[in-house]
Structures are given as C-alpha cells and as structure tokens.
Amino acid sequence: MSAGTTKLNVTVTDVVAVNELVKRFHFERTDGDDLPTFSGGAHVVVEMRDNGTTRLNPYSLMSSPLNTRDYTISVRRDDSGRGGSLFMHNRVKRGMEMVISYPVNLFSLDLRAKKHLMIAGGIGITPFLAQTAQLASSGGNFELHYTCRSETLGSYTDVLRDRYGSRVNLYYDDRNERIPLERLLSGQPLGTHLYVCGPAGMIRWVRDTAAAHGWPDEMVHYEHFAAPQPGTPFDVTLAVSGLEIRVGEQQSLLEAIEAAGVDPPYLCRGGVCGQCETNVISHDGTFKHNDHWLSAEEHCSGKKIMPCVSRFEGRSLVLER
Amino acid sequence: MKTILSRPVYGTLSPQAGSSHLLVADAEGASAILDLARQAPEGFFASAHIMFIPGRSGERFQQSLKALKPAQYYEGPSVAAALPRLKWTLANAHMGLRIYLAGTEGLIGQMMLAATEAGIDHASIQTEQRGSLARRMQCVHCKGITENVTTQPATCSHCGLLLLVRDHYSRRIAAFQGVCINAEDPTEIPQKEEIFR
Amino acid sequence: MGINFRQETFRDDFSFKNSPEQVRRFPFPFNEDAYMYAVNIEPHVPGPRNSVFEHLIDVDEHYISEMQDRAMVLAEDPLRCQSLPHMTLAGWDLLELLMVEKAKSYPEHFTLTRDGDRWRWINRPLGIDDTFTFGDVSTLPYGPMEYITRQSQGDFAILDQRDGNLWMDAGTVTTQADWSLDFDIGMNFFEWHAPVPLAHEKGIFTRALKFLTNIQQGQPARRLNWTMTINPRLDTSPENFHKWGSDRLTVTPENVGDKVHLRVELQSFWRLPRSNTLVFPIRCYLIKMDELVAQPKWARRFHRVLRDLPVELADYKGLTRYRPTVVEWLSKYDDGAPTSPGFSPD
Fold first, then answer.
1. Residue at which a domain ends, from A223, A244, A262
2. Angle CA(C97)–CA(C103)–CA(C109) in degrees, nearest 5?
3. A125 shares its domain with A219
4. Predicted confidence band of residue B1 (pLDDT cuts 50, 70, 90)
5. Is the confidence at residue B64, as pLDDT, over 80?
6. Pick from B80, C131, C228, C275: most CB atoms within 10 A?
7. Domain co-membership, A128 together with A97
8. How confident is the model at residue C38, as a pLDDT?
C-alpha cells in the first residue's frame, strides 16, 4: 500500500486580482459539504487540465484553518515558468469545477515553541497567513517579518497589519529596507522556533545565518517547493513497466511517467516530501537535480532521482518504475 | 554489549557555533571540558558559563577549569543545589546559547531535562559520559527514583521491591526503568551483582 | 437494532465472557500456521457486516463494562492519562474524530449536534448529555482527550510529528500490553518500541515509520497485534505487574479453557487535521481458549503458532511459564489436518 493523496471536487467561487502579479482563488466543495479541517502550513495539489496536458501544482492554503466553508490560495504569475501559473491566471474563472487534493502539511508549526519567529519573502507569505490565524486563535506568541519588492507588489500587507499590528514588520526592496536578520536572531528568547518561506536564496541566507548564530537545526523550519524547470527533451526507459517514454520540454519527468499510465506516489510535487523517489538502474549522461529531499551524496551517486522536479541530459536513462 | 534503542548514546564534546556557551559537569566530566578547551576557538570561554559539581573525585580539576577563564564559574555540592541557578540561567537566555553536559548519566539526564523544559531540543545538546556508570532508576510501580544504582537487580529505595534495571530510558524522567524482577514468583530471589560502576 | 451491552468485570471475580455473536466477530490475527513480525498494515476501510471492521471505530457488547473498568484504573492511578502541554489541540482533534464516527455508525446510541463551536454530545449507554464549546477546555469536565477516551474502548496514543520522527506526547492507556505511558511519554517511535525483540534487526520499525509519517487525512490504516493474558484482565500494566504477575503461575491443565485468553490488538492509525499529529487507537479484544476452540480452524492454527513461536518472542510477551501447559491443552484440538489460508473460520 502506498501513501498518496485523496481528491476533492471543488468549484471556484471567486477569483480576485490582489495586485498585478498575484491572483487569489476561492474553492468550495461542489457537493456543498464542508471541506476537511487542516493545519496552518498545509498545501493542496491543484489539478489543471490544459488541452490534454495535466499539470499538478502544490499551493499553500492561506485561509484560516478554522474556516471549512472555503479554501483560498494565491498564485503568483510566472511568465517564464511551464505554464501552471499562467493557466491559473488566464483560464480559471468563477464557477469552474476543479479537482484538488486533501490538505497535506509538510511545513507544520512546532507547538512546543515558546515563540514563533516567521520570515517571509514575496509570495512565500501564504502559509504564514494560515499559521498566524491558527496561532492568533489560540493565544500563540508569534512575530512576522515580511519582505516584498514594493508596496504595490506586497500581497496582504494591509490585512496582516490590520489583524496583528506591531507583530507584523514589513520591508520593501524599493526603499532599500532589509530584514535586520542578525539582530533579530540574537535577541530571541530560548525556545523560539524559526520559520522561513520565500525564494531559494532567501531561505539559504536565513538558514546559514541562523546556523552561524547557534540556532539548532531542529528549531529552524523552511518550506520551498521547487517548481519543475523546463528543459531539453530526453528519453527514459521504465524497466518495471517495460515502457519507453519521452519527457517533453515543458513536461516534468513525473508528468511524463504519469502520462504513460504509471502512477508513482506523490504528496508535494515540489521535491520536498520524498514520496516519488525513484531508483536509477543505469544512465549515460548528466542529472539536473532540483530537489530538497536527496542528500548531496545521493545527488552525486547517480542512483536516485526525484522525478517531480529533476531532469536528465544524455544518451540513456533506465528507471525502476 | 547488546543494548536497545532507548538507551541514550553519548558523544564527545566539541565547540559549536553560538553566541554563548553553558558547560555543566560533575566529577570526571570536568576532563571532557578540558579536552574541548584544547580545540575551542579563541575567545570561546569569554562567553562561557561553567557549572561544576566536583563530588568526591572532582577536586583535582578545579584549578584547571578556573584557568580557562570562563565569564562565569560556579561550583556546587549537588545536582539539586545547582538546578535553581541552571533554571534561572536558561529562563533568561537567548537563542544562540549552546549547552554541553559531561559526567555521570544522572547529571547529564537531569540537566538535559531542565534544558528541554526551557525549550531546547534534546538533540542539539552536546553530551559526553565520563566517570561512574551508576544509574538513576525509576521504580515503575511506586514511581520513586533511586539514585546511584550499581547493582543488578536493585532494591527500590522507596517501596522496597526488587527491581530489574532495564536499559529502557526516559528523558522526561531522566532515569532508567526498574521493573519487579520476581513478580511472577516472589519466592525467587536472584543474587545481586555489582555491574554499573 | 442496538447493541446488547453486557454487565461484567475485568478484575476480582472476572465475570467477562463473549456472546456467541461476539466470538464469531473476533479478529483472529493469524492468516497462516506460523507467526513472525511483519509490517502487516492495510487501509482502514469499512469491512463486512458483523465484523469488528464494519465501522471504523468499533463499539461492542463490552462497551459499558470496559468504560467502568477504565474509570476505576484512572481513579487509582491518574498518570495513565497524560498529555504534554503542546498536545491540547490534538486532544480536540481526537474528540471530534471519535464523536463524529460514533454518531455516524451508532445513531441509536450516540448523537452529536453542532452549531458552530457550540456542540451537544449525547452518549446514551453511559447516560451522558453535555453541551460545550469546541476548543474551550473550561466547558468540559476533563481535558478533551481524557473526556472522550473515558467514553471510548481501547487505549489511545497521540503522536506529534517532528524532524522525520513520531513522538508519543499524549495518551490514555489503561488496557496496555505491559508498557507504561508515564515512562514512555515523550519518546520517539524507535525509543518506545526499543524493548521489542527481533523486529529492529529486521528493519520493521524503519519501514513502519516511513509509512506512518506519510499517512494523510482521510486515509487511515490498521494492523493487528497479539499477546496472551491470564484471566480477562484489561489492566495488565507494568505499574501493577507485581500484583498480577503471579497470575501466570496459576495455569493448570484443568483451567486453561477458562483462564487463558488470546488478546488481540486492533491498532489503527489516523492523521488528525488541526494538529497534524497522528492518533493510534489500540483496541483490545479478549477471547477465552474455550471460546476460541469452538472454531476448529482457529484451534488448530493457534496450537501451531504458539508451539513454534521463537523463544525471544515468547519471553517478550510473557508466555514462557505457561506456554507448555497451553500448547499441551490445545494439541487435543489439533488433528494435524491442513488449515485453509486467511483469518476467517471455516
């Protein structure tokens, strides 16, 4: 028995332009029932059917976990991506029926924390919208530091300020404002947990600085879903199923495997959860690893690949699928 | 020797990145701090606080520990006497404080318990066992704790039952589990052997 | 049609027994003539009518008496029910799960009415009718986990998920197979299973942990485990081992049928939504040897399993002193005929 995701049939009840780059989508259950309760930091995988191509992208739930009437997600348009965010922005309209997964949480709050210190960059704010709502309802001690490109591109800055006042600190790049990270990290009471979500470079900066200041790994939490990158098409042999497949330029390896009728387990489709880890039987070429799951040694070993986000360039690749 | 996964595993102290350092030791545990000092970076002890419980066998380390010139140095007669100071220190500390515990399992366990209650994850605490292998044991029946257990089986100092000292260890109680060894047939009285020294 | 609840005891005069219908639905745990550890996990989905799997949370004829026994254990030793401070939210999750499942499966016995946070819970067998505010501990007589587990058969362990491991940070444990919640609370998955022999070397727990940490909402799983108990005693705790351990010396060829019980645990595994924790309900079913041998296939098979059990497992399960007597007694019911595959009686 493999773990996996259960599906929910939902209807889009509203689409709201938050600013020129971000749209918010509201979903309710098509059968009118309540949606499952979830915990702050959870995501759902949204299925997009686009002229014969199926894309499954993970998005953090940003609505309050106390609200089971509707789920909301926010999607930032990525004009150079593979088209998932463009599909959401251009094709998804109010009234449309869609399929999403049950919520899965790979970025959970550690409720033992004496205090929660949260650092968000750009669209990385979304899981914190749910987490702060959860903590505020139970008297949790938190502080949020949120950096955006400019005031007009800052999503939900006003909502957060209204809800939580001085517990929310905003920084705008176009005003050369920067999170005073070192000062912030050195002044926290013992037992504080640190959470970071945002661009890869920011996560690295926060984790490295925290480690250098003596923050134990167990108290530093981060979530970064890698988006599958487009790339040169390549051919793969699936040894168990006896299939030869081609991975297209705009397709991920996992999507190509699924299109051939083979269904590896998955939860996040962003290189984080480890579910779709696949053994490499043989290869002649170079791996383009893009995940946060395999260790550096495993990346070098040539024996494993995460097909949700990683690619391959070369003459032949045989997988145990 | 065969043991089980709940038996704590101790390491070797090594200096960690951090803004301040709290080092706690009893008796021979002091020698682990002195070994750590040999590889510590310049200025390490300027932000260090050493708490030492010499006991009967630790007096010979006092001068060497003081010579490390820690920012704070404390000596106390027992774990119980040192705990209020430790708890105050932890309650007023900031993230970036690193914790190092060395000596007997009883000391390591009780100090680790205070640190985890202050919000520090146990896995981030450096530990090293030195000196006596005597065990702290909780009687699963009456819940009383017997200190410095050296025999197998051992008598509970509270309820008097004869207990098998297991390798099963609870961080939350900072003790090994003792279970009645002759519950099935109380007329069987196994010989005590001195094995934890 | 409702359940016919029995009035019986699990201590002192030990008046517990199973009705013939209850014997037929007993979850016999052996699908072949030998036993070894395996990660025998399957999806926890509703099973056949009149089986213990018919409903995801099973309530049976022993319900009222088991709850009375639990109340006695908790009065004697409140440490059998504990929740570390960060686990209160998980307690509310468990309360919701158990109330919703019971009300859905047994509407004649349990009713849940929800109006926002205002909940009304009616438990007819135990004579309870309480209105409370979901999420507000001051509106219940106990914490949420204790409140609902005083009304639910089986032990409950709630696991927090952190750093790729599961941490047993809350539970109600009064019918345990010889482990102490008070001692084990706060331990991770490997630590609290540390005393189990043979399974670690086989990598069983590493694989089980990988599976369990990936259990998602809406996809519970289950497995069966077993041991044996002398007298139908629910509270076989290590705390009281010095009081019940000597029961094991009382087995004679004449009393095996009535005194010796096969004890089966139906363990299920659920993701709890608000807290992202897991709960393991561990439900205990007892059957007397006299009741078991009424099914010829079960008698033959259990004889072979018990006879061939590795010594380490027999020691761990505490069977060593009386195993030869029970094997000898069971051999009368084993003519050597082959048994059919699967769990069910022929």
1. A223
2. 135
3. yes
4. low
5. yes
6. C275
7. no
8. 67
CATH number at residue A297: 3.10.20.30
On whether both A19 and A87 belong to a single domain, the answer is yes
State the residue for tokens 């919000």: B119
Q: How far is A108 from chain B (nearest CA, A)?
A: 16
Number of domains in chain A: 3
Q: Is A85 on the interface with C (CB under 8 A)?
A: no
CB pair distance less than 8 Å for C193 and B5: yes
Shared domain check, A133 and A98 = no
Q: Give how far C76 is from chain A: nearest CA, Å.
A: 30
Residue A63 is part of a domain; what is its CATH number?
A: 2.40.30.10
Which residues between 206 and 265 in chain A have a beta carbon less than 8 angstroms from any beta carbon of chain B?
Answer: 211-219
* Residue B74 zone, left/alpha/beta (φ > 0; ψ -120 to 50; rest): beta
Per-residue buried b or exposed e for B180-197, using 16+ beta carbons within 10 Å of the residue's own CB: bbbbbeeeeeeeeeeebe
Indicate whether C39 pLDDT > 90: no
- Which domains are delineated in chain B? 20-129 (3.40.50.80), 135-194 (no CATH)
Query: In the 8-state DSSP scheme, what is residue C177?
Result: B
- Interface size, chain B vs chain C, as Cβ–Cβ contacts under 8 Å: 64
Residue A174 lies in a domain: yes
Report the DSSP beta bridge partners of residue A11: A28, A97
Note the pLDDT tens digit of each residue in B141-192.
999 999 999 999 999 999 999 999 999 999 999 999 999 999 988 899 999 9
Q: What torsion, rounded to 10 degrees, do the Cα atoms A242, A243, A247, A253 define?
A: -40
Whether residues A238 and A219 share a domain: the answer is no
For residue C295, is pLDDT > 80?
yes
Q: Which residues pair with C177 in a beta bridge?
A: C236
CA dist., res. A259 & res. A269, Å (int): 15
Provide the residue range defining the domain that includes A29.
Answer: 7-105
* Chain C residue numbers touching A42 (CB-CB < 8 A): 276
Q: At what angle do helices A157-164 and A126-137 cross, to 10 degrees?
A: 10
CATH number for A136: 3.40.50.80
Domain boundary among A105, A138, A153: A105
Smallest CA–CA distance from C246 into chain B, residue: B184
User: pTM for the complete prediction?
Assistant: 0.91
CA-based nearest residue to B141, from B127, B156, B119: B156
Residues A207 and A245 in one domain: no
Domain spans of chain C, in order of start: 20-27+38-225+266-286
pLDDT digits (tens, 9 = 90+) for B89-139: 999 999 999 999 999 999 999 999 999 999 999 999 999 999 999 999 999
How confident is the model over C173-196, as pLDDT tens digits? 999 767 899 999 999 999 998 887
Question: Cα A129 vs. chain centroid, distance in angstroms?
Answer: 14
Could A111 and C274 be called an inter-chain contact, meaning their C-beta atoms sit closer than 8 Å?
no
Whether C290 contacts chain B with CB within 8 A: no
- Global ipTM: 0.92
Contacts of C37 (CB under 8 A, 6+ apart): C198, C199, C202, C204
Task: Identify whether residues A84 and A18 lie together within a single domain.
Answer: yes
Task: Flag whether A1 is in a domain.
Answer: no
- Higher-pLDDT residue of C122 and C207 is C122
A181-190, A249-258, B9-18: the lowest-pLDDT one: A249-258
As a whole number of angstroms, the distance between CA A23 and CA A12 comes to: 13
- pLDDT for A13-28, tens place per residue? 999 999 999 999 999 9
Residue numbers of C annotated as active site: 223
Return the residue of B nearest to A114 by Cα: B119
Q: Do B96 and A213 touch (CB under 8 A)?
A: yes
